[in-house]
Fold these 4 entries.
Entry 1:
Amino acid sequence: MTTYVMGRTPEEYERLRRQAAIWEPATARVLSRAGLEPGARCLDVGCGPGETMRLMAERVGPTGRVVGLDVDVPLGALAAERSGGEFVAADVTADDDAVPAGGFDLVYGRLILLHTPDPVAVLRRMWRWTAPGGVLVVQDYDMRTVDSYPPIDVVDEWRRVFLGTYAAAGRDVRLGSRLPTLFAEAGIGAPDGTDVAGILGTMADSAGMLAATYRSIAPLAVAHGLIDEAQRDAYPAEVAAAAGQHPSACAMWPLLIGAFKRKQR
């Protein structure tokens, strides 16, 4: 996770908070289906700004425990402070012993596998941290669905740059759709359940996230030669103009796909 392709800036952290708020209903639904109850011990892998830690803390109550794990120490420590939880500084791609094996009733990761070079190894690690009788829950994107109708140039440009940069970085933009297969490859077995969440909005309410994600990916996109600095600087105004011209155009977001599996006792 030291090679997080979206960068580590205050603007990116704020974008993550906005993104978490947008997907909160989908995450709450998956946590309910996984059976998260008061008193449970929870681990949020790649906790980021801690919005899911807050959801977990609300559900497990004062008798439960919520731990966030992230390689970004200042961000993770702040997340723990705001949620009333704990924080472990560790790299999920490398640190087998960051937390006790079998130590958590729920091990959760949202949009974490997409940023790792070996998702199967990370799943095995997360499964090892799951207690007998506990549940592993993962949510990740299939970004191929991003589109607009009628077609709008700035959305096509987003797809070219964003998906191209992820591919150049060796990341799989369809990873969410592969979760059942990845569970099987990790030796976890077929998920007990899956969940698919999507957003079909308008250009008016999607332009801000298009611009924010483009801004976060831009340094790596420039490094890979997909855009130059002039294109980087011009894109926010182009998105705003497109939203003004086509405010009611349909805008499809990535699919957020979840899978969960309970470990036998």
Entry 2:
Amino acid sequence: MPEIPFQQLAIVGLGLMGGSVAKALRAAGYGGRIRAALASSAAVESLQDSVEAWQIELSPVLPEVLADADLILLATPPRIMLNQLDEIARWAAASALVTDIASTKNAITRRAMDLLGSRFVGGHPVVGSELTGFHAAREDLYRGAQVILTPFPGQTDAQAVEKLRQFWTALGAEVQEMSPMAHDEALAATSHVPHLLAFMYLAGLEARFPGLENLAGGGLRDFSRIADSNPALWAEILLENRQAVRQQLQQVQQNLQLAEQLLAAGATAELQSWLSRGKTVRQQFHFPPVPV
């Protein structure tokens, strides 16, 4: 296992993403201390037996979890994370590096850097699942995945960025860097709007039930899988990145209007040309590995 430059990790939120970090570290032989902050004593009690095999210490007391941590990983939903940043800044050790795994970066990174300075480095693993919670976490979730780090040029500690690159590489990920704004624009196109379309399309079929439930093939299954994701979380993500999402939706609406015009005109050649363009673009993507 490549060397991990942290000996005490604090994870704030232990769901699918944060839990997968902890499991991946233990599966790879990491011997450092892992502590996780949960929202309540009841949440700690409900997970206590499940985390024992992974040697994760749980607590609902944030200062206790952050004490002496040299890496603090924020893994709560975006709005919760924004509300937690003041307390994170208050209790984090002065030497601790702080990062996050939220899928929106601009607002979180700006607020975190105001409070934490150059030792905050935003991050986003471009991988996930419609499943949620620690029980859905997988030790191989980040293997072969892309992780985007979003430092501010000239404002983020370069050494902190390099340490995080080592950290994610040790978990099997490939690391690249983008500005927070460029990240949010790109993810609106590749993740946020696709989720929104899946949710909204399925919602539009509501009036046709009962009647359609036994008539779906693989196309609807594959297209709609992500609509099984957490609606509350995705409402937060979409609202946090609303400007980029709205810009991308305008392009989608233009393309749908064009499709309607081609169908109305019976324009076989033009319609096929657009379908071929879509297929060609899809073939250029490097998708995350499919779990087996």
Entry 3:
Amino acid sequence: MTFRTEQEKFWTGEFGTEYTGRNQGEHIVASNVALFGRILRAAPHVRSIVELGCNIGLNLQALHRINPRFELRGHEINATAARAARELAIAEIVEGTILDELAAGRTFDLAFTKTVLIHINPDELNRVYDNLHALSTRCILVCEYYNPSPMVVNYRGNDDRLFKRDFAGEIMDRFGLRLVDYGFTYHRDNYFPQDDVTWFLMEK
């Protein structure tokens, strides 16, 4: 696999594999069920969903529990994580970088990322934005760390591995999308905590 950025190499290597060990468990799936249940109320037409950067499939598991009839696909760069997601047998899993062109004739009602854009080299973000837009027939969802202007955050002692910005605003401006709904998830939620992530549901 050929990579354009140091960030891609970072996530395919030891750090990316260790990440899967730190981030798993039933409590995460339950929190994701609550989150996606809330989001999908504003998109009742959704029947097929693709996730860019699915890791071991925690979001896909939640979506499958919400509706086992959802047609699901995940794209994942880390081989260990992709294998774990595939073993769930609930979604088609494609191993590879999401900086490559992904649209190959198959589209979905909803394309989304969750804490993935924050780890993409800012110079390559438009490639991922284009994939989200091309893969979606109607809705795009991003659940990411928000900041009104671009900034870099040291990530577990690593520089240039976590970036905050207004991802949704950039996507809406690039493609002329309409904002359908948005919200915030808090790490101290009493029942369904998440990272302090802001989500934006957009529609073509």
Entry 4:
Amino acid sequence: MEPTVAVPGAQAIGRAAALLRLVSAGGEQGRGVQELAADAQLSRSTAHRLLSALRAEGLVDQDERTAKWLPGPELFLMGAAAASRYDVTHLARDIVRSLAVKTEESAFLSVRRGDETVCLLREDGAFPIRSFVLSEGVRFPLGVASAGLAILSFLPDADVDAYLERHPDLAARWGGSHDAGALRTRLGETRERGYGVNPGLIVQGSWGIGAAVFDQHGRPEWALSLTGVEFRFGPDRLASLGRTLLAHAHQLTSRIQHARRR
């Protein structure tokens, strides 16, 4: 995420917000405090203290049987209030479904949230072998999954430079193929091609391609993507999948821009 402005209490708010995002990503399965603390880079006691405070406000809940932490009722109410401004899933659902039907691969809609992408929709195609790297609620840094690669590619150069300066640890976390030089090469290829390709860089043998979707100001705020096993993304078929993906991304861009202008 982009750095928080230095104001009193900002560190505690940032830590609580990070825990909220991690709990939300766990969905109905829930997540244990030890796992949440590790992912948030907090001590177990600090994570538990913050989670308890969030529970008192109704933002998270805890399963009495498993002790796992879950999204709370206040998150639902907040989400419902914000949906009219930010939610585009009602505009995208049939397009994502069409993409899955036509390609027979798993199709997704992701949204940019700060320095990450969050998967909003998943539709599985008819091909029986699937990749499960991405599902609803899963987050990736920009430039890692194909959706984030597509979005990052069409941001202004200054924004890309600032992002890479904020995240010098991408290679350490995601492998050497995500160092600044390699990532800039993929960004250039994505701009030329129109869509980004992830050739099994997150999970070996699991490929993905992504295309940016733009808001009414021309900013890449969402992405459509496809994932599947490597042999389904050979050179000849990759070009065909890319054309289909770009056509659907253009359709969704037009739909969003028209809806936001009304």
